[in-house]
Write a structure and sequence with these properties.
The chain has 10 helices and 11 strands. The chain is α/β, with parallel strands linked by helices. A hairpin with a 5-residue loop joins strand 2 (about 50) and strand 3 (about 55).
């Protein structure tokens, strides 16, 4: 009787595991013949839209490579890519709720965020910095004592900046905004003394601004921001499929083509980013 019970329990467990696999993200993609990807406009050179309102950028190209790899892994003749426009505030909830299968912008991998979503291999390493006007004497974070700094609400930059100011006993007023365009507008109109965000993103914002010659960046960063693609939590097979695509890019060196396309004019990859590519070039 005991053997029969154990056999029944084993069958039940196997059925549950099989059912779980069939309801995973890869199976959903296979059945729909489509993968749904989220992007955030205004995050150039990582995630933005072109003149035809189509997603473009470093992170977007990585996600396109992921889609192509998953199509091959699933043995599909074709795979439709459905793009969904998100905001910095709702991007993680979109992944958590299943609205998108993957999020492709400038999301920093943190342990608190990993309680809600999962993450791919690291795709980029950046640092938090502050943009200010060229006539400003500010060159370091300590120069903002008694000043006003714009920062996007709900981002890791906001949290890191608060922590950096507290640790150094710098009394600066933080002015929260919802978009990078809003932060730049406040700085351009002199309503704030600085605008904090990720360094490379700030460079992208300036390069697309009509008044780009009016700004400069601090000489120091106040945080390290490891970017990764946000994925549904608890789906190991899907995460493996995504990481297979990224590891192949790093291993083959094809990541350099994507980097050059979007970031090449800023110089070669940093030592930290080059190390991330090298370490994550995992073998099959």
């Amino acid at each position: 009787m005991r053997l029969r019970t154990l056999a029944l329990l084993g069958f039940t467990y196997a059925f549950a595991v099989s059912a779980a696999a069939q309801t995973g993200t890869l199976e959903k993609i296979r059945k729909q013949g489509a993968i749904t990807m989220g992007y955030v406009d205004g995050s150039s050179p990582f995630s933005s839209t072109d003149a035809a309102r189509q997603p473009q950028g470093y992170s977007v190209d990585l996600c396109r490579e992921v889609a192509s790899s998953i199509r091959a892994q699933l043995g599909l003749a074709s795979l439709e890519t459905r793009w969904v426009a998100l905001t910095l505030q709702n991007r993680l909830e979109a992944v958590k709720s299943g609205r998108v299968d993957i999020e492709c912008s400038t999301t920093t991998w943190t342990l608190s965020r990993q309680a809600d979503v999962d993450f791919s291999l690291i795709t980029f390493v950046d640092g938090g910095s502050i943009l200010t006007r060229v006539e400003s004497e500010a060159g370091r974070l300590s120069d903002f004592n008694g000043k006003r700094i714009a920062v996007i609400t709900g981002t890791t930059t906001e949290k890191a900046l608060k922590g950096a100011l507290e640790r150094r006993s710098i009394k600066a007023e933080l002015v929260t905004v919802r978009t990078r365009a809003a932060g730049l507008q406040l700085l351009d109109s002199r309503k704030v003394d600085g605008f904090a965000s990720d360094r490379i993103v700030l460079i992208g914002v300036v390069l697309t601004s009509k008044t780009q010659g009016a700004f400069k960046l601090l000489d120091e960063d106040f945080s390290v921001e490891p970017y990764a693609l946000a994925l549904p939590r608890g789906d190991a097979e899907y995460r493996l499929a995504v990481n297979r695509a990224l590891a192949r890019l790093y291993r083959s060196g094809d990541i350099q083509k994507i980097y050059d396309r979007w970031l090449g004019r800023l110089g070669p990859p940093s030592v930290l980013l080059s190390a991330a590519y090298f370490i994550q070039a995992l073998a099959e």
